[in-house]
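Justification of resources, computational component.

The compute hours requested in this renewal are based largely on the per-chain cost of generating structure records like the one below. Each record pairs the submitted sequence with a full structure-token output. That output is archived, and it is also reused by downstream analysis tasks.
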Amino acid sequence: MLQRDYFIRIIEEFMAALGRFLEKKVDERSDEDLKELYRQYVGSYDVLRNLSFKEILQYAGEQYRPDEHIQRLDMLAELLYAEGSYKNAPLRDMLLGKAFQLFDYVETNGKDFSLRRRQIMQEIKEKTSTDSLSTD
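The structure output for this chain reads:
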């Protein structure tokens, strides 16, 4: 019970930290700030950002506790979406494509319904080509 409460608190802290990052003007958002969010909540920015969707799932299976697996993937999807939302194509499409795949995975395998997640997925579909949304 304490472990679950602790992890819920981590999720709340993550959402607040991500919110503060996104409140900044685009030109004030630094890659260092984003890397720190990755490091604190999901793992190495340099590793995770460069993995394919399938490799991310494998990494998550090895690195995340089973009871935190889906939530950590959801956090990673949020970070990829946040970064993709202010980058230019083709990097934007790659980041948003992976974010979409992770959101879809969380939607399919998670227990929590999220209208926000579905709205983000629809927004990603509208912003990117369908090629970037396919699984690899």
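The two ends are 37 Å apart (CA to CA). The chain has a mean pLDDT of 91.
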